[in-house]
């Protein structure tokens, strides 16, 4: 019971503070930066966001997890706007000026990234209780930040608090612009982070914002860029795992002790999927076995001559770039073959021991460094 | 000529003089998160530009109907989200059935279609009473605004990542927010509004 309480507290702390959606994950920034310019508008924003997050996250956990994630994101937007409308109407009745001032930002909350990310990362993968705790604590964390930023901006920018004049000698209306909101968010995040590091040195709030890929180039072939891994919701890729993920998987298989039973395939990796993979692999093998097509406008004889001719001319060699591309293609093909082998092994239940015996011949360190070492066909 | 002029001026307005991300704050979180993953910039921008332009165009065409034009902001919100949902579902079907897209490509569609930047464009058109060509310009401008924002933030993030002199509590998002706020200040200067300091 005591442990459960501790776990619950840790969950609340993580969702509300250590992984605060705005301060450390940079989610739902747009409404905070642009709309939270006074305490009243901050209250409206906080109420709408909290209601939206809690209701949609619980619905995602109970009902929406049964539909595909492609469709879920559209459902979140529709639900968001449907939840917004009655709250918006309510506020328009009690605080018409503030609702008017909120402008187009209240309707924009329907597509707040806070909802989609929390639902996809947490709600659809966890049971109801945990989802409820996450929804409430993340909403509380978000609302607290919104209220703090709204109050500070109203005091600094307008010299008032809840529309009561504070008669301050200096006002800085610049804080009412989005840059003012972002500046305050920056200092607030630094302050909260300092507090967290002081009280919980083992917590790492900076890990909530992944900066490991910032030095990658944004330039490249569009096809390659489109093929680059993109997983904002931390989903499991069921169709074809990325090469790096496959290498990791193979490395893990190698490092695992021999007595350990083979890892259970994920739910989506059913026999049907394996069969499809096998068929694809066979098709690919057949394709590879076929001779290359004769170039247009040349006879078959000439083409075969050309193929048989030794590569005497150095000038005829492909340029460096083409060769590199070819090597990359071969590597990716090799990687695909390895994954197909994995599929065969899963399908026919080949014992891990065979793999282990193969792997045992290679040095331990080599096995870890070169994941493809023990699985050559 | 006037068609080109209105298209171009709306695009310039959306990406430079009233940069939707820095001066308006729309889509700021997507821009900051994508700046940390520069490989995603162009694929995501293509989809963002597609949704913002097409969504903006369809919404402006629907605005021509008197009943729609006279409805209040709630109904507009419902209509604009509805248009985006339909556009998203149609694109999703096309991408899945005809291009056999991978899940990672499809995920980009969701992020690109449902964000504050894309939904803000029809609202801006509605508020500014933009015509068809201005709406197209605003949609294209939103895409370019995203590219400018992501590139500028990414350059800053790289410098921040290498900087060892940043205090520990400012490392990560705090420094990023302060950097983005300085960029936003610069773009606010382009809008021509005084800060009243």
Name a few traits of the molecule.
heterodimer; A: 377 residues; mainly alpha; 2 domains; two-stranded antiparallel sheet; elongated; disordered C terminus; B: mainly alpha; 0% strand
Description:
The complex is a heterodimer of chains A (377) and B (197). The longest helix of chain A has 31 residues. Helices cover 63% and strands 1% of the residues of chain A. Chain A starts with a helix and ends in an 8-residue tail after the last helix. A two-stranded antiparallel ribbon of chain A has the order 1-2. Chain A has 377 residues and is mainly alpha-helical. Chain A folds into two domains: 207 residues, no CATH class; 108 residues. With 197 residues, chain B is an all-alpha fold. Chain B has one domain. Chain B is built from nine helices and no strands. The longest helix of chain B has 31 residues. Classes of the chains: A mainly alpha (377), B mainly alpha (197). The interface between A and B is large, with 82 and 83 residues.
Mean pLDDT of chain B: 90
Strand order of the largest sheet of chain A: 1-2
User: Radius of gyration of chain A, rounded?
Assistant: 29 Å
Overall pLDDT score of chain A: 74
Class by alpha and beta content of chain B: mainly alpha
Compute the number of structural domains of chain A.
2
By secondary-structure content and strand pairing, the structural class of chain A works out as: mainly alpha
Distance between the termini of chain B: 41 Å
How much of the sequence of chain A is in beta strands? under 5%
Q: Biggest interface, which chains?
A: A-B, 82 and 83 residues
Structure summary, number of beta strands of chain A: 2
Order of helices and strands of chain A: HHHHHHHHEEHHHHHHHH
Order of helices and strands of chain B: HHHHHHHHH
């Amino acid at each position: 019971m005591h442990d459960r309480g501790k776990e619950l507290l840790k969950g609340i702390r993580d969702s509300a503070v250590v992984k605060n959606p705005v301060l450390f994950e940079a989610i739902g920034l747009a409404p905070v930066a642009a709309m939270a310019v006074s305490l009243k508008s901050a209250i409206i924003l906080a109420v709408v966001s909290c209601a939206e997050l809690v209701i949609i996250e619980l619905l995602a956990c109970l009902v929406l997890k049964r539909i595909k994630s492609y469709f879920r994101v559209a459902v979140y937007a529709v639900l968001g706007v449907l939840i917004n409308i009655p709250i918006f109407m309510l506020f328009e009745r009690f605080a018409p000026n503030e609702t008017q001032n909120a402008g187009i930002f209240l309707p924009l909350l329907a597509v707040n990234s806070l909802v989609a990310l929390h639902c996809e990362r947490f709600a659809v993968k966890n049971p109801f209780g945990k989802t409820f705790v996450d929804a409430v604590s993340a909403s509380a964390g978000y609302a607290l930040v919104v209220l703090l930023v709204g109050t500070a901006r109203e005091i600094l920018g307008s010299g008032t608090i809840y529309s009561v004049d504070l008669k301050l000698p200096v006002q800085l209306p610049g804080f009412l612009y989005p840059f003012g909101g972002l500046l305050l968010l920056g200092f607030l995040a630094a302050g909260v982070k300092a507090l967290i590091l002081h009280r919980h040195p083992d917590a790492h709030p900076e890990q909530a914002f992944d900066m490991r890929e910032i030095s990658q180039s944004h330039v490249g072939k569009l096809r390659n860029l489109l093929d680059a891994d993109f997983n904002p919701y931390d989903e499991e890729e069921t169709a074809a795992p990325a090469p790096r993920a496959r290498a990791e998987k193979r490395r893990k298989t190698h490092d695992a002790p021999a007595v350990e039973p083979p890892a259970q395939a994920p739910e989506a990796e059913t026999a049907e999927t394996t069969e499809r993979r096998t068929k694809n692999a066979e098709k690919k093998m057949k394709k590879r076995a076929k001779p290359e097509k004769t170039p247009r406008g040349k006879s078959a004889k000439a083409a075969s001559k050309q193929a048989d001719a030794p590569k005497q001319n150095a000038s005829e060699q492909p340029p460096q770039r083409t060769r590199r591309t070819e090597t990359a293609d071969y590597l990716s093909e090799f990687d695909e073959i390895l994954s197909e082998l994995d599929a065969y092994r899963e399908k026919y239940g080949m014992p891990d021991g065979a793999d282990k015996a193969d792997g045992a011949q290679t040095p331990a360190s080599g096995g870890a460094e070169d994941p493809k070492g023990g699985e050559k066909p | 000529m006037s068609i080109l002029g209105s298209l171009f001026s709306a695009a310039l307005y959306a990406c430079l003089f009233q940069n939707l991300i820095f001066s308006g704050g729309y889509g700021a979180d997507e821009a900051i998160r994508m700046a940390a993953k520069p490989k995603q910039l162009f694929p995501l921008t293509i989809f963002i530009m597609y949704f913002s332009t097409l969504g903006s165009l369809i919404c402006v065409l629907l605005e021509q109907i008197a009943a729609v034009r006279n409805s209040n902001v709630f109904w507009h919100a419902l209509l604009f989200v509805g248009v985006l949902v339909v556009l998203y579902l149609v694109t999703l079907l096309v991408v899945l059935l005809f291009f056999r897209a991978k899940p990672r490509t499809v995920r980009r569609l969701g992020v690109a279609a449902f964000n504050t930047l894309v939904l803000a464009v029809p609202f801006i058109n509605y508020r500014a009473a933009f015509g068809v060509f201005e709406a197209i310009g605003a949609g294209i401008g939103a895409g370019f605004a995203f590219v400018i924002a992501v590139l500028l933030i990414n350059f800053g993030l790289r410098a921040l990542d290498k900087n060892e002199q940043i205090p520990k509590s400012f490392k990560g998002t705090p420094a990023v927010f302060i950097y983005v706020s300085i960029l936003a200040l610069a773009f606010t200067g382009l809008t021509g509004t005084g800060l009243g300091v």
